[in-house]
Design goal:
The structure holds 2 protein chains of 2 kinds. Helices cover 70% and strands 0% of the residues of chain A. By secondary structure, chain A is mainly alpha-helical. Chain A has one domain: Helix Hairpins, CATH 1.10.287. Chain A starts with a helix and ends with a helix. In chain B, the strands form 3 sheets. In chain B, strands 1-4 form a two-stranded antiparallel sheet. A two-stranded antiparallel ribbon of chain B has the order 2-3. In chain B, strand 2 and strand 3 (68-69) form a beta hairpin. Chain B starts with a helix and ends in a 31-residue tail after the last helix. The chains are: A mainly alpha, B mainly alpha. Chains A and B meet through helix 1, helix 2, helix 3 and helix 4 of A and helix 26, helix 27, helix 28, helix 29 and helix 30 of B.
Chain lengths: 123, 952
């Protein structure tokens, strides 16, 4: 099971990094989401894997999984949403302002893209 | 009363003229004058004690561990400078009241002037060198604002900038020097430091400290080769020039040299550098001043020359020279401020201060001419005026100095400078007031109103009195010089007549030679124009341009403006660090027993693999990418469920829903992606980086999981119920054990929400708004909102909210809590926006998401306060059992209030991000309240600002 989870963490990280290195906006955002999946699972794994021992106190039971990584991951998930929403909006606004959703700007591209905006608007 | 009040009154009182700025110019000036008078009165209340040789001080420890204390002391030197600063300040305020136009921003002017005044007082009265450094920088900043007062003039801005760069840069050197000094002395208190001179001089770092301190002092006091900023600062209004550039700020460097005189003056390095720099400055500046045609420029260079004179005297390291230096500071301040003010009157009345355009003004403005002539004669060193007495003392010292085996060098150069000094003084008087009357035709020069020439007269009176009876100034100079040197062999006695000495002979030579210089001025000018000389201002500007160009070139080389490249560099760097550490250690297999993989887990793994593969291969297909992301998120939430984390599973799955809606909304506005333009080699490199980082993270995870460890969570598990009152340990950690972390996290969420709103709200205007109009939906649908979805979501709304409340309430004991409930309720509302449209939903929205975020954070933050009342740390919780009829005994924990805060913030961020995206989609222009118009009025067009035309 450990091998299964760690390979899943590795796959998610690899996909996330690959998409992060893309040149368009949406893959970069999705890549970031994959990276946060991977990191969240990684954090959970730091508490080691246990099955059917949720950290909810029950009378007579003394063996529970480690609750601390879970608390960290819970806020991380919500924060990751806040971050994703912010960069989606940031990217959207950047596209609306510049007419390009490229995550990199070649100097010649920059001139061309800005120039084309002016023409499109009829000037 | 505290000595610090002298410094704090002007700094704090600066608000008074600023607040009076609407009450008119006179009110501002009076306010500023009142503040200055108050500070002066407080200062003088200490004068008797200081006079009798008892320095007074007050001390307030600020950060004792750093040696930082807010301590001030007034000794002879401090009293002398502080009185000079405040007295001059009063005259300058009186003068400025008539000089400045009522239409100017006078409130700001007087406020900055007072700040400057306070900062100068801070330098002279601080007993702690760290505090002194702060005031030192404050004088640089406030003088920047004062020089640039007429900010519409380019030369004002350039002069202000240059002054700031030179004096600010010198200030940085000074900080370094002072810190070394304090370290070497083992104290940052000036009074203690002065007692430890021998110790400091023996320290190996003493030369470095001295070098840096000298750079600071020389830049501030405009010593060669840093002299060029002062003439350029003449773009300032004349009151500023009279105050900063003759009497106060430029004397700050000299003050510093005088203050540290007992520590450093016995050093060989001091005796070598300081007098030579002073001497060179005195000669070079005087020779430039002779040829200046602009009155203020002439005065500026003469000031530099006189500052050089004082620096030279301090550099000689003898008691007699120090006495002469202190005396000349007083004399120079008196006649130079009078001359600056006179130049300002001429400029004000004749509309020009250029000697080529004005002349013979004595007939038109006799009072000004008389006052200025006396002051200039004092500057030239004519007998029976104060300048003569101190110049004699200077020459005497110069003739008595042997430098580098040359007994004649100082005497000769000093005499030469004295000639030039007579020359430029005579030129100033002759050119301005004598000869044929001429001035620009538009002007009607005459003597100004009393308020303007009175300050000049007040300054000229002591010029004459000290000149006639120098012994009157003896006690002041004695007190000051005693404080500088730490004790004089005999009391200072100033005489007019020193007998027939070398100095007197040199004075006579200087007078005659100076008059001859003016007589043959145009020949000299012709000669001067024939030979090339370096221009310090031009060199400075060229250096600045070169630095800027160099910086730009470096940025161009380093900044590729490519996010992927930066990401790649960061990832590869982290990977390399990890690899380096990995290869440097020893490794063995883990010893923790592994769990056996079940069938559901294997199936989930395969689905994850498949979805990931599709995401990579179809990364240009937007919809596919989002669907695959959602599928992976679903598997991740199942994984949480599998590994005993029900809270995480609930959070993940609800967040997944929100994220997917968000992406789909944004997708509508984003451009379609073309086929991937990346080259295959680039794909290979990216793939390699991706595989390497995946392998590293996966391997690391496996290495950790296959080893046992000791958790710190036993405490949390044990205390959850008895201490926190809840059985869901994850929730108790979030809202109780680590509640302060959670508070910080919801604040981050709140800030993100506000940023999202700001970004989207402005997206409807300007160029972005224009582009928005061109965005066409890919497939226009016939009916925007399907009936079944609309009705379905409306029916679901109360049910989801009910379950949200349920999940919230049980959160402390069972999986759930504020975060999950918040996301769930957020989804319930978002569904309305999606199904029924923005307008319909906004019309019925009762809660402003901004308010929810604000209220949430406030409730969470405030909920921690009551524990203080009971003497417990912030955010300590309590709980109790409350019997409720019919239901039974119910446990109520105080943390539920905190969790309500979390809940509200999360609902707020979900709503603010998604609802605003929906609003942009509907192209609803922003309204004043920032929420969007709920009614169905026609949509006004976004303003069509003509975007600036870009050229290729």
């Amino acid at each position: 099971m450990e091998l299964l989870l760690s390979s899943a963490i590795g796959i998610l990280m690899a996909v996330g990094v690959y998409l992060l290195l893309e040149r368009r906006m949406l893959p970069v955002i999705v890549g970031l989401t994959f990276v946060s999946y991977s990191v969240n699972l990684f954090l959970l794994a730091m508490g080691r894997l246990t099955i059917d021992k949720p950290p909810i106190i029950r009378p007579g039971i003394t063996d529970y999984t480690d609750p601390l990584p879970q608390a960290l991951v819970l806020t991380a998930i919500v924060i990751a949403f806040g971050m994703t929403a912010l960069i989606v909006v940031l990217g959207l606004r950047a596209y609306l302002e510049t007419g390009s959703d490229a995550a990199e700007v070649e100097r010649t591209d920059m001139v061309r893209e800005f120039g084309s905006v002016g023409q499109k608007d009829g000037r | 009363m505290l000595t610090s009040a002298v410094v704090l009154v002007p700094v704090v009182g600066a608000i008074i003229p600023f607040m009076l700025r609407r009450a008119g110019h006179a009110a501002c000036a009076n306010g500023a004058a009142a503040v200055t008078l108050t500070a002066l009165a407080i200062l003088l209340s200490y004068a008797p004690a200081v006079w009798s040789g008892q320095p007074v001080g007050s001390r307030f420890d600020w950060v004792p561990q750093l040696g930082l204390s807010f301590s001030f002391f007034i000794d002879g030197l401090g009293l002398f400078f502080a009185a000079l600063i405040l007295g001059m300040g009063l005259l300058v305020i009186l003068y400025a009241r008539n000089y400045l136009d009522d239409s100017e921003p006078v409130g700001r002017f007087y406020a900055v002037l007072l700040v400057f005044q306070g900062a100068m007082l801070g330098i002279t009265l601080s007993d702690n060198i760290l505090v002194m450094l702060v005031f030192w920088e404050l004088t640089s900043l406030s003088s920047f604002l004062l020089i640039g007062h007429w900010s519409h003039r380019p030369e004002s801005r350039q002069g202000a900038r240059m002054a700031l760069i030179v004096t600010g840069g010198g200030g940085l050197a000074l900080i370094g020097g002072m810190l070394i000094l304090g370290h070497a002395a083992g104290t940052y208190e000036v009074t203690e430091l002065l007692q430890r001179g021998a110790e400091i001089r023996a320290h190996p770092h003493a030369p470095a400290a001295l070098a840096l301190i000298l750079i600071g002092a020389f830049t501030k006091s405009a010593q060669f080769p840093f002299h060029f900023w002062l003439p350029n600062a003449m773009a300032a209004p004349t009151p500023v020039s009279a105050y900063l550039h003759s009497a106060t700020m430029v004397k700050a460097g000299i003050f510093l040299l005088a203050r540290l005189w007992p520590v450093f003056s016995p050093m060989e390095m001091w005796l070598t550098i300081v007098p030579l720099v002073g001497l060179a400055t005195m000669l070079i500046a005087a020779s430039i001043a002779l040829f200046k045609r602009d009155l203020k420029q002439l005065l500026a260079y003469s000031t530099v020359s006189h500052l050089g004179l004082i620096v030279m005297l301090l550099g000689l390291g003898t008691h007699a020279a120090a006495v002469a230096a202190m005396f000349h500071i007083l004399n120079h301040a008196l006649f130079k401020a009078a001359l600056f003010m006179s130049a300002g009157i001429v400029d004000h009345e004749a509309d020009s201060r250029n000697l080529e355009r004005i002349g013979g003004l004595a007939r038109l403005m006799p009072i000004t001419a008389a006052l200025a002539t006396i002051a200039a004669a004092s500057m030239a060193g004519l007998p029976l005026l104060n300048g003569f007495v101190s110049k004699e003392m200077m020459l005497e010292q110069a003739f008595g100095t042997t430098y580098a085996g040359m007994p004649w060098l100082f005497g000769l150069v000093a005499t030469l400078s004295a000639c030039l000094s007579v020359g430029y003084s005579a030129r100033l008087v002759h050119g301005t007031f004598m000869g044929k009357t001429r001035h620009p035709e538009t002007a009607h020069p005459h003597d100004p109103q009393v308020g303007m020439w009175l300050p000049v007269a007040i300054l000229v009176v002591p010029v004459v009195i000290i000149g006639l009876l120098p012994s009157l100034a003896s006690p002041i100079v004695d007190m000051t010089a005693r404080a500088v040197t730490g004790g004089l062999p005999k009391p200072v006695q100033l005489y007019l007549w020193h007998g027939f000495t070398m100095a007197l002979a040199a004075s006579m030579v200087a007078l005659i030679a100076g008059v001859l210089l003016v007589r043959f001025m145009h020949r000299l000018e012709a000669l001067q124009s024939t030979f090339r000389r370096p221009n310090a201002t031009r060199i400075f500007n060229e250096t600045l341009v070169a630095i800027e160009a160099g910086g730009r070139a470096a940025i161009d080389r380093l900044d590729s403006r490519s996010l992927p490249r930066y990401v790649a560099v960061s990832i590869v760097a982290v990977f390399a660090l990890g690899l380096y550490a990995f290869l440097g250690g020893t490794h063995g297999p883990g010893n923790r027993a592994a769990l056996s993989p079940g069938l559901p887990a294997t199936v989930g793994w395969l689905v994850l693999l498949a979805a990931s593969t599709v995401a990579v291969l179809k990364s240009h297909d937007r919809l596919m990418l989002i669907i695959m992301t959602a599928s992976v998120g679903f598997i991740v939430s199942l994984a949480f469920l599998q590994f005993s984390a029900p809270d995480l599973a609930l959070t993940q799955i609800s967040i997944e829903v929100v994220t997917t809606i968000l992406m789909l909304l944004a997708l509508n506005l984003m451009p379609k992606m073309g086929t991937d333009v990346a080259t295959s080699s680039r794909k290979m490199i990216n793939g390699a980086i991706a595989v390497a980082s995946g392998a590293a993270v996966g391997g690391l995870a496996y290495a950790v999981m296959s080893r046992s460890y000791q958790s710190i969570s036993d405490y949390h598990l044990a205390q959850s119920k008895p201490g926190g009152g809840g059985t869901n340990v994850v929730n108790v950690i979030l809202v109780d054990f680590r509640a302060f972390d959670t508070l910080g996290e919801i604040m981050v969420l709140g800030i993100a929400g506000i940023a999202i709103f700001a970004l989207l709200d402005a997206a409807l205007r300007g160029r972005s708004g224009q582009r928005l109009e061109h965005v066409q939906p890919e497939k226009p649908s016939g009916s925007p909102h399907s009936l079944i979805t609309t009705v379905g979501t409306r029916l679901l709304l109360p049910m989801i909210i009910t379950s949200g409340v349920f999940i919230f309430l049980r959160g402390h004991n069972e999986p759930g809590g504020g975060f999950i409930a918040g996301v769930l309720v957020g989804i319930a509302y978002i569904m309305q926006y999606v199904a029924s449209g923005y307008n319909w939903s906004q019309e019925r929205a009762r809660f402003d998401p901004h308010l929810m975020i604000g209220a949430g954070i406030t409730i969470a933050a405030v909920s921690g306060l009551p524990s203080w009342l009971f003497g417990y740390p912030y955010l300590t919780s309590t709980f109790g059992y409350v019997p409720i009829p019919l239901i039974g005994t119910v446990e109520i924990a105080s943390v539920i209030v905190f969790d309500i805060g979390v809940f509200l913030t999360v609902v707020g961020i979900v709503l603010i991000s998604l609802a605003n995206l929906a609003r942009v989609e509907d192209k609803r222009p922003a309204t004043s309240d920032g929420v969007g118009t709920p009614d169905e009025t026609p949509v006004p067009q976004p303003p069509r600002n003509p975007a600036p035309q870009e050229t290729t």
